[in-house]
Amino acid sequence: MLLVLIHGFPHAGAFWTPVVDRLRARPDLAGWRVEAPDLRGFGAAPPEPPLTLDRHADDLAALIERAGERQAVVCGLSMGGYVAFALWRRHPERVRALVLADTRAGADDEAQRAKRVALAETARREGAAAVAESQLPGALGRTARAGEPALAEGLRALMASASVDGIVGALEAMRTRPDSTPLLPAITVPTLVVVGAEDVLTPPRDSRAMADAIPGATLVEIPAAGHVSAWERPDAFADALADFLRGL
Ligand code: MLT
User: Fold this and answer.
1) Distances (CA, A) of 237 to 210, 220, 231, 241
2) C-alpha 27 to ligand 1 mean position (Å)
3) How far is 220 from 194, CA to CA, in rounded Å?
4) Which residue from 136, 102, 79 is spatially nearest to 227, judged by alpha carbons?
5) Among 105, 108, 104, 103, which Cα is nearest to 119's?
6) What is the rounded average pLDDT of the residues 4-11?
């Protein structure tokens, strides 16, 4: 049994290390393998075009096949959730179950699209460090921002190590992504929606609405966590994942 964790923007597979470590330490998940790949353009994966959500989904379908599995439980956080929707759209036979964390089904509106264009310009002009700086305030919840500087430092370093090509490609992919809202009532696999209680980018009420639209989905709200709930509260996130996996 395989669990695939899909990172957000502009992260890398290493985003998931605290959660992966906890999952691997759990005797009740001994039969599970966990993969947290770098999406192309992030971490050690070269920014080989096309850097589209569909291509990321195809890469993940190939990863599942290479792992010798017919299906995987697919967990995506934020942009990783957009990739999970693309995987469900393109390769539903590969998806055993879905975990949608701090993400949204809707497409960008005009204001969000304009922000993507401006951020791509910042990336080209000032580099990944400037993009990291601009993302941090929205990423962490108020609890982490107020009293846990190590969380900000680690995330800043991870984001600042992203390639400019990867950042620009991901911004274009997110800007042009389709609306996945019509997919929600037709999701036929077990689905868990996870959200940080302090997430201001994809807030709990929107996650509740998304969970309500997916037949049989459950929602877990992680206390004292913002938009990067898995990074901020890996214990609670791993517990929620473990409960879900055990129930499959
Ligand atoms: C992420 O964390 O992946 C981003 O918030 C996604 C986005 O910008 O829509």
Assistant:
1) 19, 9, 9, 6
2) 33
3) 5
4) 102
5) 108
6) 98
Task: State the distance from the centre of ligand 1 to the C-alpha of 229, rounded, in angstroms.
Answer: 13
- The atom number, within ligand 1, closest to the CA of 80 reads 3
The answer to whether the pTM exceeds 0.70 is yes
The 10 Å Cβ neighbour count of residue 27 is 5
Q: For residue 135, which atom of ligand 1 is closest to its CA?
A: 5
Domains of the chain by range and CATH?
A: 2-246 (3.40.50.1820)
Pocket of ligand 1 (CB under 6 A): 8-9, 78-79, 174, 201, 227
* pLDDT at site 232: 98
Q: Report the alpha-carbon distance of residue 119 to residue 135 in Å, rounded.
A: 10
What helix, strand, coil percent values describe the chain, rounded to 5? 55, 15, 30
CA of residue 30 to ligand 1 center, whole Å: 32
Cα 61 to ligand 1 centroid, rounded to whole Å: 22
What confidence tens digit (pLDDT) does each residue in 123-179 have? 999 999 999 999 999 999 999 999 999 999 999 999 999 999 999 999 999 999 999
Q: Per-residue confidence at 7, pLDDT binned at 50, 70, 90? A: very high
Handedness of CA 36, 41, 46, 52 (dihedral sign): positive
